[in-house]
TrEMBL record:
Binding residues annotated for substrate, in chain numbering: 8, 12, 34-37, 54-55, 87
Catalytic activity: dihydroxyacetone phosphate = methylglyoxal + phosphate
Native organism taxonomy: Bacteria, Bacillati, Bacillota, Bacilli, Bacillales
Gene name as annotated: mgsA
Family: Belongs to the methylglyoxal synthase family.
Protein name, UniProt field: Methylglyoxal synthase
Keyword flag Membrane: no
GO annotation (BP), single: methylglyoxal biosynthetic process
Biological role stated in the UniProt entry: Catalyzes the formation of methylglyoxal from dihydroxyacetone phosphate.
Keyword entries, A-Z: Lyase
SUPFAM superfamilies hit by this protein: Methylglyoxal synthase-like
Organism, scientific name: Paenibacillus sabuli
GO cellular component annotations of the record: cytosol
Amino acid sequence: MHIAFIAHDRKKEEMVNFVIAYEATFKGHQLYSTGTTGMRIMEQTELQIHRFMSGPLGGDQQIGAMVAKNELDLIIFLRDPLMAQPHEPDIIALLRLCDVQGIPVATNVATAELLVRALQRGDFAWRELVHKYKQGPE
């Protein structure tokens, strides 16, 4: 599975704690993140994460490009709904792409926990079919 982590500034600590709690689940998956979020997760865990730019500097768009190509299976995006974001159009575009491609995205810890528990149960097997279909017949 290809999983991306994004967290607004006031949600980064919450993201790190969440990933620590499910570190064993995330091992063995391809992990991606925006810059600072990924750095903070790697400092606190043994996970290896492909880091893109910081969100406001284009990291959200880099992850969005992966979504547009249907290269991600799950996004955990802890948003701060009480703080205006200067790159709000990029955030809205990313969420829209997730809807278009059918990529599950959690924007708070409650939903993230539900999706990770589904991941643990193997409920994302349908994503393997998406990847197989995308590659065409063998």
